């Protein structure tokens, strides 16, 4: 049966899960989520846009996929690529190219989308070459961090750590802007899986961490500029470790020129394990 390309439908998710595990089985970074974690990732963290995502089918099996969500990013209406993959048995058949050709043809009739954005691990030379051939351009370089050593929980004079009763935005505290998936606009889709701990002084928010306890993945870690170098970020991480039940904490996509942030993360114990490039295609 000839390869068929179709938009993603919710009932396809188990077939997609099997293809995802196969496609990333030999990836540079170990990535084998459980069914539950994959479901949360696709439907909440990514918040998949089915009509703008693509599956390549052959003989009732997903041979390749192109997963997208959309939203505002850096002032533009953006399609974000949350995963491109081809099952090993179907590689070298130009499936990824055919998926993108199908999508771009569809987008030509959808002028509301201004750009496609994605990240690629810097070791993935084949992936980088593929996107370059599609005319994607490099925009930013990111460092990704992991914290495996326990951080001692301590009290800080005048600082109260607590979980707020309502979802909050901390954009005014940013010194660097988050990458697409961790922007405040997009995080609202994943409220059910994100946990917030605030640091306050006299009821004023001076720092916060938003994270997924089931993964230990930090979405946002911010400290007011006037309150930095006082241990607030360290203590937010200590409490995030506790809520995450000792799981390693990860923090993705810190811009490589955010020297103060990187220095602060390394002082806490975070280690830069992976680097990524952000690329964009202007539609």
TrEMBL record:
Family annotation (SUPFAM superfamilies): Acyl-CoA N-acyltransferases (Nat)
GO molecular function, one term: acyltransferase activity, transferring groups other than amino-acyl groups
PROSITE patterns: GNAT (PS51186)
Protein name: Ribosomal protein S18 acetylase RimI-like enzyme
Organism: Marinoscillum furvescens DSM 4134
InterPro entries reported in the protein's UniProt record: Acyl_CoA_acyltransferase, GNAT_dom, MshD_Acetyltransferase
Domain N-acetyltransferase as annotated: residue spans: 3-157, 159-283
Keywords from the UniProt entry: Ribonucleoprotein, Ribosomal protein
Top-level taxon of origin: Bacteria
PANTHER family: L-AMINO ACID N-ACETYLTRANSFERASE, N-ACETYLTRANSFERASE DOMAIN-CONTAINING PROTEIN
GO CC, alphabetical: ribosome
């Amino acid at each position: 049966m000839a390869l068929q390309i179709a938009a993603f439908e919710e009932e396809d998710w188990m077939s997609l899960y099997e293809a995802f595990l196969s496609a990333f089985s030999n990836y540079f970074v170990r990535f084998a989520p459980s069914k539950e974690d994959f479901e949360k990732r696709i439907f909440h963290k990514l918040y998949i846009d089915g009509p703008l995502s693509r599956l390549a089918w052959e003989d009732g099996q997903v041979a390749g996929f192109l997963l997208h969500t959309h939203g505002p990013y850096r002032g533009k209406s953006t399609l974000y690529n949350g995963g491109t993959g081809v099952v090993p048995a179907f590689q070298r058949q130009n499936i990824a190219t055919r998926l993108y050709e199908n999508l771009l043809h569809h987008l030509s009739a959808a002028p509301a989308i201004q750009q496609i954005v994605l990240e690629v691990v810097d070791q993935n030379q084949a992936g980088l070459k593929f996107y370059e051939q599609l005319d994607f351009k490099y925009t930013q370089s990111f460092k990704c961090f992991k914290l495996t050593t326990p951080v001692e929980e301590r009290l800080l004079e005048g600082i109260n750590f607590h979980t707020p009763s309502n979802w909050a935005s901390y954009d005014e505290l940013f010194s660097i802007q988050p990458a697409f998936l961790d922007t405040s606009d997009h995080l609202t889709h994943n409220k059910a899986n994100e946990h917030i701990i605030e640091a306050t002084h006299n009821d004023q928010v001076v720092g916060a961490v938003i994270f997924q306890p089931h993964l230990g993945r930090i979405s946002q870690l911010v400290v007011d500029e006037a309150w930095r170098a006082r241990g607030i970020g360290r203590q937010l991480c200590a409490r995030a470790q506790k809520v995450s039940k000792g799981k390693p904490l990860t923090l993705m996509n810190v811009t490589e020129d955010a020297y103060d942030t990187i220095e602060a993360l390394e002082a806490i114990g975070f280690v830069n394990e992976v680097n990524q490039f952000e690329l964009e295609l202007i539609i």
